[in-house]
Amino acid sequence: MARFPSMDDKCSVLYLSRLHLDDLSLDHLTDSKRQQIQQLHLTYNRLSFLPPSVCFLFNLEYLDISNNALTVIPDDIMRLTNLKTFVAKNNLLDESSFPKEFERMQVETLNLSGNRFEDIPMQFLKMTTLQSLSLGGNRLKNIPAEIENLTRYDLRGNPLVVRFIKDMTYDPPSLMELAGRTIKSQNLPFSSCDLPSNLIHYLNLASECPNPKCAGIFWVQYQLPQLMRFVV
Fold first, then answer.
1. 10 Cβ partners below 8 Å, 6+ apart?
2. Which residue ranges traverse the bilayer (predicted)?
3. 58, 51, 61, 56: which is closest to 16 by C-alpha?
4. Residues contacting 14, CB < 8 A, separation 6+
């Protein structure tokens, strides 16, 4: 088990990346030094689990454990009540890897790109403080409608994108969708005198993608209330 290197009295950021760690012990640190640590970088190691000692860094605000081999996030992560940013890209995590109580975490930014998620865990969407969710490069097939409550999300590189393109190839958009897309994307003014009532109702149901890098419009399908259909 690797021991933690010495640290000065003012250190709040720890970089322990690319050290071939398969475990980590912080037992030799005093309580005062543990309380100093606000950021911890454990990327590009050989971790198959989150070292228990990490969950005793009670003032930790930023944790990056990307590019390891984690399959599960332990219940003890709930001890990190000050954690705001959690990054665990390129591991082996899926929707069953997180504790059910994870929804009570105060995390604002969650980046789990490059893992094995097929569904977005509901505990993520129930997090009251979560603003940004990145799940690009996973195996997602569906998008729950609740995701629109987030300020930002990144779902690029998932099967649902490929499937959406194929669906659009064999199931082209209706005239209603084409009209709605044109009006919304170009911000064309309209009134009840200009358009049929059913088109106005359809336009009122449209939402803009909250991702600032995306200029797309989406509608929640009537027959599939749990899924979004994106029109870009």
1. 36
2. none
3. 51
4. 4, 7, 37, 39, 40, 41
- Domain edges within the chain: 173-232
SS3 for 149? helix
**Model pTM score:** 0.70
Tell me the pLDDT band of 52, cut-offs 50, 70 and 90. very high
Taking the C-alpha atoms of residue 178 and residue 156, their distance in angstroms, rounded to an integer, is 24
The answer to whether 42 and 17 are in contact (CB under 8 A) is: yes
* Angstrom distance (rounded) from CA 78 to CA 131: 19
Cα–Cα dist 96/104, whole Å: 16
Residues 71, 92 contacting (CB under 8 angstroms): yes
Token duo for residue 213: 């890098």
